[in-house]
Design a protein that fits this description.
Elements lengths: L21 H11 L5 E2 L14 H9 L14 H13 L10 E4 L1 H13 L5 E6 L3 H9 L3 E8 L5 E2 L1 H6 L5 E7 L11 H14 L2 E5 L16 H4 L4 E6 L12 E6 L2 H17 L11 H6 L5 H4 L4 H15 L3 E2 L8 E2 L2 E2 L9 H12 L1 E2 L1 E2 L11 E4 L4 H21 L6 H7 L1
Parallel strand pairs: 1-13, 3-4, 3-6, 6-7, 7-8
Antiparallel strand pairs: 2-9, 4-5, 8-9, 10-12, 11-15, 14-15
């Protein structure tokens, strides 16, 4: 008689992370069989030929002889000074090195922040769609994610009145992702001010994921949250992974702002949790000062003619020409979140679509329901491939959607077909 299987934590059943989940595992099986796939499931610049800027690489190489010992649990002093100066320059109140925490990517710092904040049953307001690490980390730290809607019809921006209606006596924090993953929405200043007012009224911590702060298109403007928050407790997240194309270095930071007396216990809790994991990756921290004070290498990629801009242009144009797709054009970040129009959404299942797209057409995308939305007619793609490859991707997507339309008895009028040609 075999022994019973090892039990796992029950709350894991509530966690979804399809970005690296079932479909990604199936993709590895297909690749092992010799299939070549175009994998658009992860915002991983290095996998698409991007390199971290040379001045960041040199900064690590020049200091590699100093990277053997542990450093302070909050990070290298010079790195924290550079982060504090960067935040002070954009208006973060009270920005100082002792309020900066360096981690193994923003992902680790999200987990640490929620572990420092939550007691069992506490609630966190999280956007829907969300980057699912936020809801997962809330659940695994014994909290409860409460999703506020970012409606398609509103360009994936939330309604502050709806957000405030979700606040309960157990609510502890509001999560913002700006620019947004997965939708690319960029939050206007007026909206951020209204959300700050909610946090101030209900004594909530603002948790602002700003990892894409320098990736903006067509004149979109990023407004940092901390300067608007003032004395309201705020934790702002950034790092080297996206703007500086150095995902594998695992370098992120969180900057605490707000009234000192109100933040003291939380700051000490984060410091304790940071100490328990000893310190973050040391070599990558030597690139932080160079990243924040050196040449801007991301903006040229986001302007007309730049690779990210032209990739985004292909996606926007392909969705506009499609017989089936609709898209709120992303204003920032590295993603687009197309949806199948209502006319063809009958019987559409985003997971089944993603599986067919991979099996039949060799393209891996992330189903929209993975981002904690109640609808099943969206999917996420990255903007990282070469524009020509994305053009081919959307031709393959159209073929799968043609088959879906035929399956539900929908015939695209010839006039629409010719206009999309």
């Amino acid at each position: 008689m075999s022994a019973p299987s090892l039990k796992t934590r029950e709350r894991l059943s509530e966690v979804r992370y399809e970005i690296r989940g079932e479909l990604a595992r199936r993709a590895r099986e297909l690749e092992a069989q010799g299939r070549t796939l175009i994998k658009l499931n992860i915002g991983n610049p290095g996998a698409f030929g991007f390199r971290a800027p040379e001045h960041l690489q040199h900064a690590i190489a020049d200091h590699i002889h100093n990277t053997d010992p542990y450093t302070h649990q909050q990070g290298l002093p010079l790195a924290r000074e550079a982060i504090a100066a960067h935040h002070a320059a954009r208006g973060t109140p009270g920005a100082s090195p002792d309020r900066v925490f360096v981690g193994n990517g923003v992902s680790e710092l999200i987990d640490i922040a929620l572990r420092a904040l939550l007691n069992p049953g506490d609630e966190v307001l999280v956007p829907s769609p969300d980057y699912p690490l936020w809801s997962a980390a809330t659940i695994l730290n014994d909290g409860r994610p409460v999703f506020y809607r970012c409606k398609v019809a509103n360009g994936f921006l939330p309604d502050p009145d709806e957000m405030e209606a979700l606040v309960s006596p157990r609510t502890r924090a509001i999560v913002l992702i700006n620019p947004n993953n997965p939708t690319g929405a960029v939050y206007p200043r007026e909206l951020l001010e209204r959300i700050v007012a909610i946090a101030a009224k209900h004594n909530l911590l603002l948790l602002c994921d700003e990892i894409y702060d320098g990736i903006l298109y067509d004149g979109a403007e990023f407004t940092p949250l901390a300067p608007l928050a003032g004395d309201v407790p705020c934790l702002s997240f950034g790092g080297l992974s996206k703007v500086h194309r150095a995902c594998g270095w695992r370098v992120g930071w969180a900057v605490l702002s707000g009234d000192e007396a109100r933040m003291r216990d939380f700051r000490n809790a984060m410091d304790l949790l940071g100490a328990l994991r000893l310190c973050a990756n040391v070599p990558g921290q030597f690139a932080i000062e160079a990243a924040l004070t050196g040449v801007d290498t991301i903006t040229p990629l986001c302007r007309p003619g730049g690779r990210l801009y032209e990739a985004r242009r292909v996606v926007v144009e392909a969705c506009a020409a499609s017989n089936y797709l609709k898209l709120a054009a992303p204003g920032g970040a590295l993603y687009a979140f197309p949806g199948v129009s209502d006319e063809f959404a009958q019987g559409f299942d985003d997971h089944a679509f993603a599986l067919e797209l991979m099996e039949a057409e060799g393209v891996l995308v992330v189903p929209g329901n993975s981002f904690n939305v109640p609808y099943r007619n969206h999917f996420r793609v990255t903007l990282l491939p070469q524009p020509e490859q994305l053009r081919e991707v959307f031709a393959r997507i159209e073929r799968v959607l043609d088959r879906h339309a035929e399956g539900i008895g929908k015939v695209v009028p010839l006039a629409r077909r010719s206009s999309a040609a």
